[in-house]
Amino acid sequence: MSGGARMRLSIVIPVFNEAGRLDACLSALDRFVRERPYGVEVLFVDDYSRDATASLLGERLEGRAGFRLLRSAEGKGKGGAVRTGMREARGEFILFCDVDLSTPLDEVDRFLGWAGDSALDGSRYDIVIGSRRMEDSRILRRQPFLRALFGRAYAGLVRLAALPSLRDTQCGFKLFTARAASEVFRRQTVSGFGFDVELLSIAVRSLGFKVKEAPVVWTDSPESRVRLLSDPCRMLLDLLRVVWNVRTGAYDP
User: Collapsing DSSP states into helix, strand and coil, what is residue 205?
Assistant: First the structure.
């Protein structure tokens, strides 16, 4: 993580061709930051957008203290953009979430409770991940049938091959302590949509970090960037590579 004064929370948001959704996201962020009694920074990471995302963000962030615009060092996918932001973040805790805020920002307060000094259930966790597949999760709008079918099939494969204790690795709302983020993200190699499984496999199976899977409120966004004709194949290949890397010790300290 970069140097400088430590603050309570960093929020990392990867963006790619999101010009139409920026204002709603910024409005929610402004409210969230204004209402919190602790310091918050927000890092948008542009993954080489082809629309006006970068220029609009440059304009919108002027005068917003604590907001920054970064550019992904790779331009190869969401995982690469998230890594860029997480490695620049300065917070004691670092959340990455999606620009559509499918999980509302207010959920982070519970997450900080599990990862902070006074853990909600008596155990302090290094990583807290949002889950759409727990009994207490509230799904306000569900995915279309094909996306939901792929999601459940992929979740089953992940549990079988890599992370049997986790029901939902793909929800885009994950909180890391600064230490866990530093150790996990410097070992990350996957830049596409399969990066979540790699991060959690590194954390749980290679480094022994404690991960809490927490129910969330979640609303499907019809503008999902996952392409059903190509991304599932890449995600499956990434899963196989992650399983191999764990078994061969590639992520070990």
Answer: helix
